[in-house]
Amino acid sequence: MIGRLALLAAAAAGLGGGAERTILVVGAHCGDAEISAGAILAKHKRLGDRTAILHLTLGEGGNPKMSPQAYGEQKRREALEAAKALGAEVYFGPYRDGELPNDEAARRYVAEVIRQVKPTHVITHWKNSIHRDHSNTWAIVNDAVLLASLEGVKTDHPRWRGVRGVYYAENWEDPEGFQPYIFIDVSEDLAAWKAAVEKYEFIRGGISAFPYLDYYEALARVRGAVAGCRYAVALDVDGFSKKRVLESLP
Length: 250
Fold this sequence. Notes:
Blueprint: H1 2-13, E1 22-29, H2 32-46, E2 50-57, H3 68-86, E3 89-95, H4 104-117, E4 121-124, H5 132-149, E5 165-169, E6 182-185, H6 190-197, H7 201-204, H8 212-227, E7 232-236
Parallel strand pairs: 1-2, 1-4, 2-3, 4-5
Antiparallel strand pairs: 5-7, 6-7
Helix pairs in contact: 2-6, 3-6, 4-5
């Protein structure tokens, strides 16, 4: 019964059905999008949808044994390999790790990418995080979705009003206040996700002591248990989006 309710919630929010979907995941650093929402991208690619990733920074400051320039070049290569494995387009922002500004220029930059990609669904970070780049990404993306829809905002591409919803991925650095609301069954796609994220050295365990792969695979199993499937990825939405209008009880 829980699994059925989860699928109904996903369908009501837009990710569970519909034609001509384009899924855009916006991450603060290379690796954020793939580790938290890569399995969703793999699923939608398998279903025939268009998928894309925007990395606002390379995350070049995350390796204490390498210079930011050298590690940034490595992260860019890894991001390209991961995107190829997922079958996703990939875009790189102009910002520096740890210095992502929540300002008008950043909002207009992301709005321009949204107008270029024309996503129907946008996934990004939850608003509360121990990492400022993550929380700034949440604010930038939400403002950018609005800016991209406004006729009066002039960029190189025409306005785009086709975003059906903004969703927030589960990230170990963004736990405060995150409540799983939508569960996406990724049981058939976990292997593809794992092959993609292992393109990153930090996820394989070569840099950070945090067991990224173990954590997110175990988390997918936990979310799957709640949703009534083998593996699932959980998303949250803003409080005002948690509304369903039905003719009768499902």
